[in-house]
Amino acid sequence: MHFRENALKQLFCFGYGYTCDHLGHFLQQLGGWNVGGTTRDPEKKAELRARGIRGHVFDYTHPLSDPLFILNDVTHLLVSTPPGDEGDPAFMIHAEDIIQIPTLEWVGYLSTTGVYGDRQGAVVDETSELRPSSRRGSRRVRAEEQWLSLMRAYNLPVHIFRLSGIYGPGRSALDSVRAGVARRIDKPGHAFGRIHVEDIAQILYASMMHPNPGAIYNVSDDFPAPSHEVIAYACELLGIQPPPLIAYDEADLAPIARSFYSDNKRVSNRRIKDELGVTLRYPDYMHGLTACLEAEQFALAELQKVENTG
C-alpha cells in the first residue's frame, strides 16, 4: 500500500452511524482529516454534508454511484454496515473497487463479541474458537472472513474489532429508564460487557496510528455486569425508583431480548491495552453512565444559553 507523509488523511465509513459519527467528530477535532461515509437515508446524507462530512447513499440496492471517484485518496476505511446472510454488503458490492485504492493505509471492520457465542461465563480472548449461537453472530463470522480474505489475497490492511454492547450519550440505560421501557431481568450468573462509544473511537484511532494488518481486537470494558445492575445505577443517577427485579424464567421476552441473555461470557480486553497502549476512559458502566449524564446536562445547558440569547 502507498503511504503519504504529511498529507491530509481521508476516512471513509461504510455505514456512517452512531459509532462512526463519534470517530469522525474525534478526527475532525484533531484536524488534518477529511471524513466521508454512507447512509441509507437521503435526508441523512444532506445532514452529513451540512456538517462537512462527504455523505453518500449506499445499501444493497444502491451501490456507490462512482466508487473509484468517491473512494479516491481514501487512506482509512471503516466498515460498519450490518451483514446479511450472504455477508457484508460493502464487501459483496465494492470489494473489487476497494482493492484498487492505492492510498489505503488501514481498514477496520466492526464486528461483535457475539461471534464467540455462549461460554457459560468463561473468559474469551481473540484466539478463542468462534461458536456463534445466533444468526446475527453467524453473519458476523462470515463477514469477518470475507474481509480477512482480502488481506490474504491482496494485502489489504484489514483489522477486526469485536465490540461488546455499545452505549454513550443518547443511547444508554439512562434513555431506556427515561422512556419507561427499562426492565430489570435477573438471570443469576449472567454478565455482559459494554463499551462507551468514546472508548471505541480512541481504540480505532490507536489502531490507525499503529497498523497491524490481520490483527483482531476485543473492544470491551473491564467490568462485565448484569443488566439489572446497570438499570439500577441509571435510576440512581436520575433519582428514580428502579423497576422491580423479574426472574428470567418468568419474564415475557421478545426473541431478540432473549438472545441477549442466551450468551454469557467474560471478554478479555488485554490486547487493546498491551498492543495499542489504550487506557479506557470509562472502564465500567458507572464511569460511563455518569459521563453520559454529564454530557447530556452540558448539552442541555448549552442549548438553553442559545435560546436565552436568541
Condensed summary:
The protein is 40% helix and 17% strand. With 310 residues, the chain is of the alpha/beta class.
- The CATH homologous superfamily name of one domain equals NAD(P)-binding Rossmann-like Domain
Largest sheet properties: 7 strands, parallel
Uncertain runs: 1-6
Q: How would you write the strand order of the largest sheet?
A: 3-2-1-4-5-7-11
User: What is the arithmetic mean of pLDDT?
Assistant: 94
| Count of DSSP strands | 13
Cα-atom Rg, whole angstroms? 20 Å
> Could you tell me the strand content as a percent range?
15-25%
- Tally of helical runs: 11
Helix content: 40-55%
This entry's quaternary arrangement is single chain
Question: What structural class is derived from the secondary structure elements?
Answer: alpha/beta
Q: How would you describe the shape?
A: globular
Q: N-to-C SSE series?
A: EHEHEHEHEEHEEHEEHEHEHEHH
Question: Could you characterize the architecture of this molecule?
Answer:
The protein has 310 residues and is α/β, with parallel strands linked by helices. It has a domain at 9-168 and 193-222 and 266-282: Rossmann fold (3-Layer(aba) Sandwich), CATH 3.40.50.720. It contains eleven helices and 13 strands. A seven-stranded parallel β-sheet has the order 3-2-1-4-5-7-11, sandwiched between helices. The protein has a two-stranded parallel ribbon with strand order 6-13. A two-stranded parallel sheet has the order 8-10. Helix 2 (42-50) links the parallel strand 2 (33-39) and strand 3. The protein is globular and about 55 Å long. The termini are far apart. Mean pLDDT is 94; it is low at 1-6.
